[in-house]
Amino acid sequence: MTPATTAVLVGVDGCKAGWIAVRHDLGSTPRNPGSTPSVAVFASFAALLAALPADAIVAVDMPIGLPELSKRGGRGPEALVRPLLGQRQSSVFSIPSRAALYADTGDFTTVEAWYAAHRRASEVAMTTSDPPRGVSIQAFGIFSKIREIDALLIARPELRSRVFESHPEVAFCRLNGDQAMQLPKKIKGSINPAGMAERKALLSRHGYEMSFLDEPPPRGAAADDFLDAAAMMLIAGRIASGEARPFPDPPGRDSLGIPVAIWA
Questions:
Q1: Confidence band of 96 (pLDDT split at 50, 70, 90)
Q2: 117, 238, 251, 256: which has the fewest C-beta neighbours closer than 10 Å?
Q3: Domain residues of the chain, as ranges?
């Protein structure tokens, strides 16, 4: 598949309000006149897909393909990409088993219920991992979003050739000539302006207008979510043109046949 035959490229990241998507039409690059990317937030991944044509290529910062038994280092892709990232490798965390991800799918209305669900997921994760390990708070925080995509890929197998897992720091590294970003996007949970500027400069070198990157993100999304989605859109373009590399190559498959790879 080439950019000429792919009309829409989309980069997606999870955000507080749901999903932030940077969309680019006409299968061109951001440099082409009259083809400025657009950005929007969607409450659900299904709503995002419903807004796209059937041939759109989507790169999303979310694990796709779940293990039955979680092993040391993750599903496989994680162990392959961490060495590329230097000080940024802590941004790649391992995903527990599918059973742990589905251990508690309730709508948590209190903090106590949320932590109780985290404990249940950790208990299941301990019994479905080798060596046994629980679930980090960071990982548990995105369980509902992982399940959202997983359920869609189970129900609609045709999406497996259109929706691809990527990772922002791996994307920035690959876009930077296989050199990891020097500065973090956040320090102690707060935006790091220098790290954001480093990433904006790289995205600008790949065709984004700085005026677009400097726009405030839509309501419900953070500034770093916006830049991550912008990087994902470039990876969608690399996938469409055949330039992207999957880790591993070729991609693996989970027990349901869903591809398992980080693309960049």
A1: very high
A2: 256
A3: 1-94+142-264
How high is the pLDDT of residue 6? 55
Per-residue confidence (pLDDT) for residue 26, from 0 to 100 = 63
β-partners of residue 130 are 71
As beta bridge partners, residue 11 has 22, 59
Q: Could you give phi then psi for residue 179, rounded to 5 degrees?
A: -115, 120
Which residues have C-beta within 8 Å of that of residue 99, sequence separation ≥ 6? Answer: 68, 124, 128
Tokens of 31: 């440099």
Question: Residue 43, class by beta-carbon neighbours within 10 Å (0-12 exposed, 13-18 middle, 19+ buried)?
Answer: exposed
Residues 187-203 as b or e (16 or more Cβ within 10 Å = b): eeeeeeeebbebbbebb
Mean pLDDT of the chain: 92
The answer on pLDDT for 1 being more than 70 is no
Mean pLDDT of 195-215: 97
**Res 78 pLDDT > 60:** yes
Query: If you search the block for the tokens 């657009």, which residue do you land on?
Result: 38
Query: Within 13 Å and on the Cβ side, how many CA atoms surround 49?
Result: 19
- Could you say which DSSP state residue 128 is in? T
Q: Which residue type is seen at 198?
A: E
Q: For residue 24, which of 245, 207, 252, 217 has the smallest C-alpha distance? A: 207
Written as one letter, the residue type at 262 is I
Reply yes or no on whether the pLDDT at 35 is more than 70: no
- Give Cβ neighbours of residue 189 (< 8 Å, ≥ 6 apart): none
**Cα gap 163→111, rounded to integer Å:** 33
Strands 57-61 and 8-15: parallel
Other CB atoms within 10 A of residue 18 CB = 18
